[in-house]
C-alpha cells in the first residue's frame, strides 16, 4: 500500500469504510488494525479487455466470449494480475492520513495467491489488516495483508501482502 491518502472517499452505502489517522506515528502504532472494507467495484468486460490490451494477454479465457461460455467458468474471467493491480485502486479507500508522509512508494509484494477466478460482471472489494510496521533508515515500512473478496462467493479472489515505504 503506497498511498497514505487519496481523492476517493468511500461510499458508506456501498460498504466502504476508511480508517483515518492523524499522522504516520499514529499509523505506526496501529499494527494489527483492521482496514476496510472498501467500496464494491464491478469488474466488467470492458475493464478486462483494456487490461488485455495493456498487457498483450489476449488468452481466450479473458476475451473470447463464445469460447469462454463453453469453458470451465461459463464466461470470461479477469486476469489474475488485473485483480492484483486493483490493490492500487483500493488502497486510498483503506487509510486516510490527515498529515501524510512526504512520500509513499510501492515497495513490493510478499505472499500472493490467486484463489478464485473473478468472472466478468462480478463485484470485488478489499478488506485488509495492517499486519506489520517497521522503521528503517528510509522511513516506515508498512505490510498490509489484503483479501480481495468476490460478492456472493465464499472464497476470495486473492490474498496478498503489499509493502509500502512511507518517508516522513
Protein model, in words:
- With 168 residues, this protein is an alpha+beta fold.
- The protein has a single domain, classed as Thiol Ester Dehydrase, Chain A (Roll), CATH 3.10.129.
- The chain is built from 5 helices and 8 strands.
- Strands 2, 3, 5, 6, 7 and 8 form a 6-stranded antiparallel β-sheet that branches. A two-stranded parallel ribbon has the order 1-4.
- A hairpin with a 2-residue loop joins strand 6 and strand 7.
- The longest helix has 15 residues.
- The chain is elongated, with a radius of gyration of 17 Å.
Strand-residue fraction? 35-45%
The total of helices stands at: 5
- Quickly count the domains: 1
Rounded mean pLDDT is 92
Q: Mind summarizing the main beta sheet?
A: 6 strands, antiparallel
Helix content: 10-25%
Class derived from helix and strand content: alpha+beta
Form type: elongated
- CATH architecture assignment: Roll
* CATH class categorisation: Alpha Beta
Q: Uncertain segments of ≥5 residues (pLDDT<50)? A: 3-8
In quaternary terms, these chains amount to single chain
Overall radius of gyration: 17 Å
Order of helices and strands: EHEEHHHHEEEEE
What is the number of strand segments?
8
CATH superfamily: Hotdog Thioesterase
Q: End-to-end span in angstroms?
A: 15 Å
How is the secondary structure organized here?
Blueprint: E1 19-23, H1 24-28, E2 34-35, E3 41-43, H2 45-55, H3 60-63, H4 65-69, H5 80-94, E4 95-99, E5 103-114, E6 122-136, E7 139-150, E8 158-167
Amino acid at each position: 500500500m503506497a498511498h497514505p491518502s487519496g481523492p476517493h472517499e468511500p461510499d458508506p452505502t456501498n460498504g466502504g469504510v476508511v480508517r483515518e489517522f492523524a499522522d504516520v506515528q499514529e499509523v505506526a502504532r496501529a499494527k494489527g488494525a483492521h482496514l476496510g472494507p472498501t467500496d464494491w467495484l464491478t469488474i466488467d468486460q470492458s475493464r478486462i479487455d483494456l487490461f488485455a490490451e495493456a498487457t498483450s494477454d489476449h488468452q481466450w479465457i479473458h476475451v473470447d466470449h463464445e469460447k469462454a461460455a463453453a469453458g470451465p467458468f461459463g464466461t470470461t474471467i479477469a486476469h489474475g494480475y488485473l485483480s492484483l493491480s486493483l490493490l492500487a485502486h483500493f488502497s486510498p479507500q483503506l487509510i486516510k492520513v490527515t498529515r501524510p508522509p512526504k512520500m509513499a512508494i510501492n515497495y513490493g509484494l510478499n505472499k500472493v495467491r490467486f484463489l478464485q477466478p473473478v468472472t466478468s460482471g462480478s463485484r470485488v472489494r478489499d478488506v485488509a489488516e495492517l499486519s506489520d510496521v517497521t522503521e528503517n533508515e528510509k522511513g516506515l515500512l508498512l505490510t498490509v495483508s489484503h483479501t480481495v473478496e468476490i460478492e456472493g462467493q465464499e472464497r476470495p479472489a486473492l490474498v496478498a501482502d503489499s509493502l509500502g515505504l512511507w518517508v516522513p
